[in-house]
Amino acid sequence: MYLLQVHFKSNNPNESPDRLFFATRYVDYKGPRQLQADHLKIQTESPEDSAKLTAFVQLVSECSATFDPAAASFSFMQDIHSYCDDRLVCSYLDCQLTS
User: For the chain, how many structural domains are there in total?
Assistant: First the structure.
């Protein structure tokens, strides 16, 4: 499980990253129904998700940088890692980075 994942467009970590995935919450994966459009618990942005984005923007600001919260969009995905048996569904903020 990760809290922040950095994505490199060309999979080359020597280049600048183009996206950040900022996990906001996890729920146990119970089956494919959770990933369907009518399953709102994980798919709907919660007040806690918004609060975490606000805290992230504040942290970036305290580091003398800026981050436009409009560059973040809320989404979700099934999150399966080969190193553990836990299967989770993750709500996350997808942050587009510009240079």
Answer: 1
Residue ranges of alpha helices (H) inside the chain are 40-43, 47-62
Instruction: Give the domain extent around 62.
Output: 4-10+26-96
Q: Would you state the structure tokens that stand for residue 35, as one six-digit string?
A: 């990933």
Q: Judge whether residue 2 has pLDDT over 60.
A: no
The pLDDT tens digits of the residues spanning 51-92 come to 988 998 898 899 998 888 888 888 777 666 544 555 666 676
Query: Per the domain annotation, does 60 fall within a domain?
Result: yes
Q: What are phi and psi of 85, to 5 degrees?
A: -90, -15
Chain centroid to Cα 47, Å, comes to 15
pTM over cut 0.70? no
In a domain, 54, yes or no: yes
Give domain status of residue 68, yes or no. Answer: yes
Instruction: Please give the Cα distance from 70 to 95 (Å, whole number).
Output: 9
